[in-house]
## 1
Amino acid sequence: MTRVLSVASEVYPLVKTGGLGDVVAALPPALAREGVIVRTLVPGYPAVMDALHDAETAHTFASLHGVPARLVCCEAVGLNLLVLDAPKLFARAGNPYAGPDGKPWPDNAIRFAALSTAAVAVAHGALASFVPDVVQAHDWQAGLTPALLHYTGAPRPATVMTVHNLAFQGQFPKELLGALGLPARAYAVDGVEYYGTISFLKAGVALADRVTTVSPTYAAEIRTPEHGMGLDGVLRKRTNLLTGIRNGIDPAVWNPATDAHLASRYTARRLAARTPNKAALKARFGLDDDPGAFLLGVVSRLTEQKGIDLVAGAVPHIVGTGAQLVVLGTGDPALEDDIIAAAGLHPGRVAAIISYDETLAHLVQGGIDALLVPSRFEPCGLTQLIALRYGTLPVVARVGGLADTVIDANEMALAAGTGTGIQFAPVTASALEIAIDRAATLARDTKTWRRLQAHAMATDVGWERPAKQYAALFRDLVAQHART
Ligand code: ADP
């Protein structure tokens, strides 16, 4: 039995700004089936505190980075949660990272250092009932955890830094070193120093016993200057300790056979039952009811990473071919405006709903023909996995986890009966347009398209395989750690 303390700033469905929250929630039940017991340490944001019932105070900090705090144990949302209740840091409305004005909270360094310091306390035995063998830190918000454990020295659990997105690094002024609980020697090239600042993510990547990221291709890409976001040198040094394990989706949440958010439920054998979803979706978005039109969709943060500017650029081409497009997303205001403007120019053919709407995301995935994911980089990506499960063919940039999870329906794949979508490169508007044309051509051949949909729906997008890989990694690490 391996015990893992998972440290994260998001957990679905309580707090989620992206795929991180999904993964943090989905992995523990899958790991439990592999004999790994996980407790998940998260900040006590209002949404988390509201979900606590029968919670017990497990540990009290008289002062945690200058504020009163306690750790609360609770079972909620199917997980064993450990909640860091520190109202001065986390009892704030809105986004976990930014205030109502969209600007990062000015004390983010201290807020997330507190999360890591709490993790260190648990690692050192603050809870007699749960002393972890491994501490897994997710993204920059937990990145100080491996660093603090490294500098406090043995005995300590083994540490794993899991990178969900290298683009968010948590950089703060070097003057905060002492306030973060780091010793002076930590401010070094092989420590937390990063171009004259402190980087939480670099701290974790440089000092954890192992580093994982969320797909094999992303694990390779981030060691190159092109995709390394300034950390490729550190990652190259740690190549032997770096593993890519793809994410999965929760097959109970995302199941077209039982999905209550669809107008009509369906299976790979009853794909005709998908049609009413398309009609319902078009009505919802105010698109022309043109049943023969190829319907494309986007469900995404509207950011440059996600290539949303390329989607906006491809709109005239899409409309020119007679296809239609729905976009569900929120994000960068300039990109939101571009998408709204594109929709305004093509009423009935292109429509956008600028919103974060989980319910509607289900109907989009169950109603469109193809999902566009033209990301410039994509650590794993979840929307293409959802699309596969819903018989929606993903049209994806050949990067990161998109390259690993979608099989391009090229001649050989079609002959071998293995294609599940379309990949394109380079990540440009014209390559995206060509990929859309390839998908539309395939869709005109109903028999082939149905076969592709069936292959897509048969793809293994669950957590069983990744959980086995994480469990093996944790076991190896614990065995190795015990010997050192
Ligand atoms: P990232 O974490 O980079 O945003 P992922 O593809 O890994 O991208 O995960 C995104 C998750 O957020 C998916 O579960 C997706 O369905 C969901 N999502 C993104 N935008 C929206 C939206 N506007 N409404 C509902 N769900 C969304």
## 2
Amino acid sequence: MLKPQATATRDLVNLDGTWRFALVQSDIEKEAPWSKPLPGTLDAPVPASYNDIFVDPAIHNHVGWVSYQRTVTVPRGWSQDRYFVRVSAATHRGRVYINDKLVAEHIGGYTPFDAEVTELVKPGESFRLTITVNNELTNVTIPPGIIEVKQNGQKSQRYFHDFYNYAGLARSVWLYSVPKAEYVQDVTVVTDVEGSTGVINYDIKTATPEASNSNSSSVHVVVVDEADKVVAEASGAKGSVKIPNATLWQPGAAYLYQFRAEIRQGGKVVDSYSVATGIRTIEVRDYEFLINGKPFYFTGFGRHEDTAIRGKGHDSAYMVHDFQLMHWIGANSFRTSHYPYAEEVMDFADRHGIVVIDETPAVGLNLAIDSGLFGKKLKHTWGPEYINDQTREAHADSIRELIARDKNHACVVLWSISNEPSSSEEGAREYFEPLVKLTRELDPSRPVCFVNVMFATYDKCLISDLFDVLCLNRYYGWYMHTGDLPTAEAAFEDELKGWVAKYKKPIVMTEYGADTMSGFRSYYNAPWSEDFQVAYYNMCHAVHDRFPEVVGEQVWNFADFQTAATHIFRVDGNKKGIFTRDRKPKAIAGVLRERWNAKLKELNEL
Ligand code: GCB
């Protein structure tokens, strides 16, 4: 799915700003918030999660629908166009109304959708745009959750993932146009390298909504380098173009060509769309992860889209600052834990040569963690009562939408289809096999992983052989052998030996970390102190360095982040950040900086 862009044949109007806002208090069909101006006096910023904007527990804790509303005018000049409202994310379910009419509904809180307006409002006219957003998570949504009704009749939301269920319109809303007669609907690029020649294999889909003169039109591609020089051209909707002496997209040294798909009619360009394309290869060979044929070592983070007040709201200042911090500390990669991030973030990673493990929102498919941590009776994850066939369909949709959105990003080197599912529980294999197959069909060009939870060790995990890379989250010294680093070290090393002996696959440590209160110092390395965090990471790194099969380390987490208030072992959120929530470094930051910059130097010298 293409991100809207302004070109000579397309326009783009940004609808961000403050919108009218109201909770839906009763039955949404009866209240019909779209049918009239919203009641009350609240305004909400877009993009932002709404939860922390207002000083009102009723809004913060609301479970159900909310409404956003504003007036939009269709530009006068759009009579030859089709036009759409594009919602970059409505978490977790969104409906779009043009005046009184429902024009789109979408489930899945972190991927975009469009609503066509063309037939409903003429150019130059205004309309009431209402977007209703629902934050409920059930056993058939991704991520899943459970809704309970309290004694007082109010709904409450439980979920099994460790980040706050921020909701609303956390990413931009747009109005955009495409040419009515024929336009570029989708572009897929897959790159390759032959000696010093870069190859872009492409597939362009066009749409001809009005049974039209498409016979007389043809598709062309033009590839332009960073100096704006045309370096290759070709004709046809499917094929490949070659770029002699291509500059490759490298981790830490990005280079992007503009791959322009054009529809031409009688020599005239009637539509064009450009995809920023980094030419690079990815390969998993034995236990190596190769980018452009060279062994790669992931340094960096599991992250969250999370800041004070905005929640998951996209913010360019935070984005640029976070990338600056990653550069400063020597991070060459991150994982979009635990959901697809804003498209702007993916574009930025492409531009700055940061490698991304791109993850679906399939997190919390695990009732064993909850039972294990709190000593509750073990409940089964896989089966009709919780994660069932319908959930798997929603999961499949989340994979389809992630790949449709992010397939052209050079930065994406690995798809992660789930974080910490209950992979050692009976039923996991039956659940995952078709999803792995689907991912490979949708994108044969990239390796696939899932992220393994600490209980599902090499002797218990039922699905690791289905994947290309072993991604392990391990908390030896924190959740296990808390504070006892010598015992933790021995246990961690033992487990890694088990994985290495059983699988000939690269291992990426996708999570390891310790909660740390910024400013708490201890002569005795007490857990929660900055000193313990340093000692903990030094222990883990000593173990990583004993295994050539470990090809990456992404610490948990980039910054402190908000979690559900019902997690009594969290005080105002998860504190495993290397940076605080407002991006101040903890003592560990300097230690990582030294280690990772040395690693990057080694990599560059290979
Ligand atoms: C995990 C989860 C992550 C949590 C983390 C923790 O294994 O993948 O979402 O935040 O542990 O800090 O407990």
